[in-house]
# Entry
Amino acid sequence: MSGELGTFTHSEALTLGVELELQLVSRRDYDLTRGATDLLGTMDYDGRFGEIKLEITESMIEVSTLPQARVAGIASDLRGLRDTLVRHCARNNIAVCGGGTHPFHRWAERRICPGERFDQIYQRYGYLAKQFTVFGQHIHVGCASADDAIWLTQALAEHVPAFIALSAASPFVDGVDTFFQSARLNAVSAFPLSGQCPPLGSWPEFVAHFEFLRDCGIVRSIKDLYWDVRPKPEYGTVEIRVCDTPLDVNTATALAALAQALCRHLLRTRPLLHAERWQHVARYNKFQACRYGMDAMLSDPVRRCQEPLRERVLALFDALAEDAAALDCTSWIDALRASVVDNDGGASWLRGWAAAHGNLNDVVREAAERLAGAGG
Amino acid sequence: MDKLLAFLHLPRRLWEEAGERLSFLPPFPTQVDSLALFALLLVAGLLAGEWLHARLRWPRLIGYVLAGSLLGPSLLGWISADTLAQARPIADAALGLLLLEAGRRLDLRWLASNPALLRGALADVVLSFFFIYFFATAVVGMAPAWAAATAAVTMASAPAVVLLTVEESRAQGQVTERVVLYTALGSAAAFILFAAVLGIVHVELSKGWLNAVAHPLWVVVGGTAIAWLASRIALAIAGRLPKRSLAQVFVLIASALFAVGVARMLAVPVFLTLFLMGALLALRDERQVLTYTALPDAYWLLAIILFVVVGAALPWREFTWIAGLQALGLLGVRALAKLAALYWAGGELAPAKRLLVGIGIQPLSATAVFMAYEVAALYPGVDRSALLLPLFAAAIMELAGPALCRAALVRAGEAEGRRQQTGEIG
# Structure
């Protein structure tokens, strides 16, 4: 096995883990504020719900749940992490909120967090590191074997637009409406190793590909691959990385439920993958989902046609009914279905408040209140 | 000597001779026009501030104060006492706007959610007042009334210096936020004590109770009434305008200047009135009408004038080494009080950072000088020597305060360093 990759850690199939990158905002004007290091330094937290750690800039904080077999555990961890964070932030006059971008912060004012890894990223990518002050949800699904992880990485690729559209909550950048439902991924696209995992059929093929990139001087570790979906050998998982951080923890939990049910469905039915064909339309479909959300028109490279994403997603929910029931995920998937039918995703919620208030400071205030809310 | 005087009077003589033939010529101007004076003070302060900042990386405020001191009546005398009086409305407006901003930073919600902050603020106020009071009575030998006046005037941090230093350093973080909060809270306490001190001074000097009771009431009730009225006007008009719009900025500034004008008319201290107005705006703005509306960068222009005027008002001519040492002693015990208060208050911030907050709130400046002159103006005939101690303490801190505040923010890692500004990495 490759030294840098290590061996693929065994984990229970379909176990779940969620990481959320959250915004730290000033309670005075709701702009991003620098506070992550001080916040962590002053926290009195025993890790019972998972980890709270630094991200690339001082205006971000990352929370990650413990590995859980069922989505109810994820819901409980996320609420516990949220409550802990909100309580400690209040003592520092900081609010926390979700969403994929901060609507009006100035990226040049961001400060890179202390730490060797962050400093290396800053030296390597320059201003892109500061522009990377965007906020995503990463969902880890446990895989029983390394080959399963590679297969799932390929199989999940065609469902990337669904995850983007369901989580889209970043319509504003630099104080303007971008017309996108998820503008966050445009910041990620600037990185040279973002995008899709190439069509690989097995773990040895993946290792060979990684070694090729390493020998070419392109990567040093798996963390250098900013793929939409990637295997995570150290956790024994496949990681979906395209979601915006939702505006509340219930939506984040629902997305994790969808990922779990979908992975079970894929592993159970083992559909024929057309990875190379999907590779050709992946960027276009991703753009459509980012730009139009549920109103996107996706290209199907197998049937050589276009179809509305909304129809695809609703059909997917129907197809997952059995798997969702087996995993106690039904209510969470139903909540996502209602959101699709009612067309009330994160981006439209944010736009609605922007229209109501006429300014973006109040939009962030509403978002902070929504994240902190008992229901959220 | 006679030739020199004749030479100096030559322009005036020529002007007057020309005036006999040219009917449109006004009389020879004996005073600088206010706008011209404003421009001259601005340029003098600006040049000194920018030069020191560029060469030595000193805070610009030090340059403004130095320019004022150099040009003022105590040294070169280019800014006369009359000129100072002429520039006072501009200085009042500048101080008013800065104090308005300090009042707006009075965040009681944060105080409620973090008991350590309240402990720190109370300890800061109590220890600073009593340390200075005991130093003034036991070491300097002041009478209790004047010692109390000195303590009231010098105990609080300087909102104008702190806010401008934070802005200049583009600082952001927990140390910065706490420095601003403690400064606002300390100012609030200082203003309450200042009102009480006015009564004490009246008792001391006039032996009558009417002024002793009426004057503090006039100051507090008058200041509160003007502040309440101006803040209501600001919120009522701004509520009909888009948030963060330029129109809202104008409303905020116009309301503040209205409050400054009324306060001057009614002989109520401007700094107190505008601080109260800011605090009322912070506390009563439930719909965030003006919460996000920031003062424009142009108020730096007013700040330059303010600090040039403050520098010129410092009584350097009356400086003696004894007075200087006493002022240093006062600053020493004041610093000790603030550091001890914040260290003792505890809280979640690391002790080293709490001490940095203590250093950050050391500035003592424009407000203290203006408060001292308010007290002095009560009985102009009375010996002003008792006021020299706070004034010299303010004079020393005018130069050291901004540097200390900036050093604390830099040490805390919250100021924008040169590396950040140039985008240099590695």
Chain B touches chain A through 27 residues (CB under 8 Å).
